[in-house]
Specification:
By secondary structure, the protein is of the alpha/beta class.
């Protein structure tokens, strides 16, 4: 048994803070990029190992029978506050707890949970908060699997949904929320901003204002949950604008190397507690190895996202005026004075590195372009070190009905591109030669 495990199981050392973390020096608050190097971990509790070991174990030894009972009281919810120590890897583990500790740092969240995938995070959250007969309100479009989960899977249990466009006005948002309230219980308001794959922004502040005006400000109001995968946590921090929970596919920027699958939720502890209980029941926690790899990746998150964002600005500047390009759905090109530009100014600190490229033509031209790429890889996903390109209408959103795809602007001439950390001029050369094949 390692010293880390002994300390955690003793019940005398807080399980999530094995030592007082240094969060400021000389009155200066340390930044997340600094805290990622050691926050939540004491090398002296693990034989002096600079980096946390990978704890590949299914279960943990209790110090005593009384300690085991105390830990299970927390895990099962019989006693508030969660487990005081390590119990079983379906519930918690050292790598997962250090990861969750650091995830919360980026947005100054009260608490955080990690999951085996982004969809596992979404599904666990919905199972914890939604009851049969509820009406979910969400922005549109959503990631196709999320739409399927809400519309088809939960629909089997009498769950209804109402949506509004990502760029909806305050009046449009209020109208939909009002209809939802009239229909019955609203368990949550689910947002995705920027939307996948159109890059349209949701006005989080307008949703908060409409929610509070219609449902009040009491504890029973529906929480606002937002998928912040495209911009967070560097370029958008929804908790600051009134959201209760922020959801991530950690596979993307947080993992950032296209070598793992994971998800995370950060935010208000009161909303996360039932989700933690559901995760304990169905076992959707991150595995130790993936958690350890995420700890590695978080150390360079700011560097990678900054470089990718700079590259995207250069690539989009080239694509914008190309004769074979209809338009570029890039947040750095929003029309001054437009509603989208106003949302961007209030909510975002960067334009991101994932954008929508609309070619002149349709599926034939899109496929020709994709097949001609040499540096950029033809693959789904985003936020990795490499540049990726895909065709949403024929790939990630293939299961979405054609009429809904048309209504949401997911057209055959749309190519989604995620820019990586390669040399920007090399990427421009690659896109230039690929467009010549169209």
């Amino acid at each position: 048994m390692t010293k880390e495990t002994e300390a955690d199981l003793s019940g005398t050392t807080p399980r999530r803070r094995p030592r007082p973390d240094i969060v400021e020096i000389g009155g200066r608050k340390l930044q997340p990029s600094t805290l990622m190097m050691g926050h939540g971990y004491d090398p002296m509790l693990s034989e002096g190992s600079l980096k946390p070991p990978i704890f590949l174990t299914s279960t943990f030894v209790f110090e005593s029978a009384a300690a085991g009972k105390r830990h299970f009281e927390g895990v099962t919810g019989k006693r508030p506050g969660g487990a005081e120590g390590l119990v079983y890897s379906r519930f918690n583990g050292p790598d997962q707890e250090i990861l969750e500790h650091r995830l919360g740092v980026w947005e100054e969240a009260e608490d955080a949970l990690s999951f085996s995938s982004g969809m596992a995070a979404i599904a666990t959250m919905l199972l914890a908060l939604v009851k049969p007969g509820d009406t979910i309100v969400h922005s549109a479009p959503l990631y196709a699997a999320t739409e399927t989960l809400i519309g088809k899977i939960l629909g089997r249990f009498g769950v209804q949904w109402l949506d509004f466009p990502a760029g909806a006005s305050p009046a449009e948002i209020s109208a939909v929320l009002g209809r939802a309230k009239d229909a019955g219980r609203v368990p949550l308001i689910y947002l995705e901003s920027p939307a996948n794959p159109t890059n349209a922004l949701v006005d989080i502040e307008a949703v908060v204002a409409a929610r509070d005006a219609i449902f009040g400000v009491g504890p029973d109001r529906p929480p606002i949950v937002i998928d912040n995968t495209f911009l967070g946590p560097l370029w958008q921090k929804p908790l600051r604008h009134g959201a209760e929970l922020v959801l991530y596919s950690l596979t993307k920027y947080a993992g950032g190397h296209s070598d793992l699958v994971a998800g995370g939720v950060v935010g208000a502890k009161t909303v996360l507690d039932p989700i933690r209980a559901m995760r304990n029941t169905i076992g959707t926690i991150t595995d130790p190895h993936s958690a350890w790899m995420l700890l590695r990746s978080l150390e360079t998150l700011e560097l990678r996202m900054s470089r990718a964002g700079e590259n995207a600005a250069k690539v989009c500047a080239f694509l914008r005026d190309h004769p074979k390009v209809e338009r570029v759905g890039y947040l750095g090109f929003l029309e001054e004075g437009s509603r989208q530009a106003d949302i961007f100014r209030r909510h975002c600190t960067g334009a991101g590195s994932t954008f929508s490229l609309y070619l002149k033509g349709g599926e034939t031209e899109s496929f020709a372009f994709l097949d001609a790429l040499k540096i950029a890889k033809l693959a789904v996903s985003l936020g990795g070190t490499e540049t990726l390109a895909s065709h949403p209408a024929g790939m990630t959103h293939l299961s979405v009905p054609d009429a809904r795809k048309a209504a949401l602007g997911i057209t055959d001439n749309l190519v989604r591109i995620s820019i990586g950390v390669e040399d920007a001029d090399d990427l421009v050369a690659d896109f230039d030669q690929a467009l010549k094949a169209v």
